[in-house]
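Feature request disguised as a bug report, sorry. It would help if multi-protein outputs had a clear separator. Right now it looks like this:
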Amino acid sequence: MSFHEALIFDSEQLPLALETREEDVLQDFYALFQQQLDELQAGLASATALCDRANVRQLAHKLKSSSQAVGAIRLGEALAALEESCLSWTDADIDVLIADVIETSSLTAAAVRVRLQTTAP
């Protein structure tokens, strides 16, 4: 795994956090996280179109901790920056931050899909 790939998704993080390597448990967590990523992307698109900063902040906050727990470090950082921008009312960077979150969540979703497929029964 390259350094860049590790920043996008470190599949060793979740087993450490859960203190288990039981594949069924890990698969369930990764599948749930994958679903949350899909919801994040759809929700951000909708909230952005409606200029709904409160919903953007809520979406960022909701997935920030989950991202870090499963090993999606870069996404967790991007979500934290987006949440902070929404709280501080700085419009200048919010579109750039949303674009970063969407791009990073797409890369993360692809990495999680690979993880799910390579360990599927």
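(second protein starts here, but nothing in the output says so)
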Amino acid sequence: MGLDIHVTSRGIAHLGVRVGMELRPIFTGLSAAVPATDVAGLGFGAMGHLQLTSAYADAQLMATHFLDGAAEVVRSWEDLLQTASQNWAMAEQANVVLYQ
């Protein structure tokens, strides 16, 4: 015998709020922290500085780009979950049986 799982418009809306409050800050926080990973001066050594500094800066830019993109995707999930919640609520209202 399986579990009965009931989806409600409130549950969908709550998920959207949690995604925005708990998941999106992870990506925005990581993106904001990328500059803190700079290697200053000759941190890669004299030879490493010549060879690695540019590649490392490119990797930082790529990481920031991907993390910002992930945050934007999560933001779109919030919007889509809000829309889904509204649609679900309308469906719930349309399926209410009225007794006279």
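Even a blank line would do. Unrelated, but nice: The helical segments are 9-33, 45-94.
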